Amino acid sequence: MDAFATEGRSCANEANPPRGAPLFKKGGIQGGFWCGALEQHMNTATDPKAFGKVAVLYGGWSAEREISLKSGATVLAALQRCDVDAYGIDAGTDVLQQLARGKYDRVFNILHGRGGEDGVIQGALEVLRLPYTGSGVLGSALTMNKRLTKVVWQQLGFPTPPYVVVNRDTDLGAIEEQLGFPVAVKPTREGSSIGISKVTRAEDLAEACELGFEHDDTLLAERWISGGEYTAGVLGDEALPLIRMETPRSFYDYQAKYLTDTTRYHCPCGLPADQERDIAALCWRAFEAVGASGWGRVDLILDERFRPWLLEVNTIPGMTDHSLVPKAAAAAGIDLETLVMRILATSLKEGAQS
Length: 354
Ligand SMILES: Nc1ncnc2c1ncn2[C@@H]1O[C@H](COP(=O)(O)OP(=O)(O)OP(=O)(O)O)[C@@H](O)[C@H]1O
Ligand SMILES: [Mg+2]
Description:
The protein has about 350 residues and is of the alpha+beta class. The protein has helices at about 35-45, 65-80, 95-100, 120-125, 135-145, 145-155, 175-180, 205-215, 255-260, 275-290, 325-330, 335-345; strands at about 5, 25, 55-60, 85-90, 105-110, 165, 185, 195-200, 220-225, 225-235, 240, 245, 265, 295-305, 310-315. It is globular, with a radius of gyration of 20 Å. The N and C termini lie far apart (about 40 Å). Magnesium ion binds near residues 299 and 312.
C-alpha cells in the first residue's frame, strides 16, 4: 500500500476550512452555479434508477488501456453498489454498435487516452444523442494535446513551463539554447507518463526523443521545474483538496504512478491554507479556460519559490486504487460511491457536451 497521509485539518476556521468543505467553488462557497442547475439535477437523480441504463465505457485501444480496464472495474462496481443499472463495455471498434444495440440511456466514460479522452468518442456519442460524463468534444480534444493546451494557457496568462516543439527534423541543439537542462521530453498526446524522459545532458536528447516518437509524431521539450509536485482534482464546480506527490524516483513516472509502493501522497498537502486555496482556484480556472468541464485533474509543480507551473489537464483521470481523484475526494469527505454518482450526474448537466 502507498503511504497516504489523510490527517484531518486540526482547527476549522475561515483560513482552515473543515473537512468536507470545498476548497474552491465557482461563484464562491455560498452560491454560484453549483447551487443551481447541477444540484437540482443531483436532487432529482437521488434515485439511482433515474439515470436509466448506464454503459460504463472502459478499455479502449490507447496506450492507457490497462489503466482504463482497472478504472472501469472500480467505477462499475461502485455504481452497481449504488443500485445504478450499470453495464461494462470494453470499447473496441464495434463500440457504437454495442451502445446502439444495448439501448443505453447514458454513458459513464472512463476511457483514458486517445480515442476515449480526446473528443473522438464524445463526438460519436453526440451523434447517437447519448449523454455522457465529463468534458465535451472541444475540451477533450484540446486538453489531449499538451502543446495546444499550453498555447491557450500562455495566451490567457496562466503559468506553464517554456517549451520547444520537437518534430523528427528539429535541430536538437535548439533545445539546449532555448531551455537549458534539464528538460522533460514528452509525447504531445499521451498520458500516464508513457514516453516521458527527464534529460539532463545534450547527449541523451536523441534517445529520449526516440522513445517519445514511439508514442507520437510531435513531442514537447519542456523546461524541467524542480520543486514539489501537486495535483488538483476538479469535481463539478469545485476544486478538491490538493495532493502532493513524493517519489524517490527521478520523477512521477509510470512505475511511481502504478507499480511501486514507494510513492507518498500527502493530503492535506502541507501548504498554508490560503496558498492552497489560491492554487486550487488557479487550477479550476485553468481547467475551465481550456473548455474542460464536469470532472478532471490539473497537474502542476510548485518551484523552489513556490510559484505554480501548470503541466496539463486530464479530463478522464484514473479511478484505480492508486489514483489521485478518489484520494482527494476521500480527503474532502466524499467516498467512492458518492464520487462516482457525482461524476455520473455530470452527464445530466445541460451544455456539458458543447
Ligand atoms: N516540465 C516538467 N518539470 C518537471 N517535471 C515534469 C515536467 N513535465 C513532466 N514532469 C514529470 O513527468 C510527470 C508526467 O508529466 P505529465 O503530467 O505532463 O504527463 P502525463 O503522461 O500526461 O501524465 P498523466 O498520468 O497525469 O496523464 C509529471 O507528473 C512530472 O513528474
Ligand atoms: Mg500528469
